[in-house]
Write a structure and sequence with these properties.
This protein is mainly α and 44 residues long. The protein contains three helices and no strands. It has one domain (6-43). Residues 1-23 are annotated as: Disordered.
Amino acid sequence: MRPVPAAHAAGSPAGPDSGAGPALAAFDHKRALTAAEAARLAVA
């Protein structure tokens, strides 16, 4: 999976121009995830 923009990893909303992959976009609404967890999932 390609790298995720730092702003998105920090919890910014996923939009069509955010560069986020579809899997990360699916996780974005789960606000229970911390920035660290989101980053770990993004690189997994």
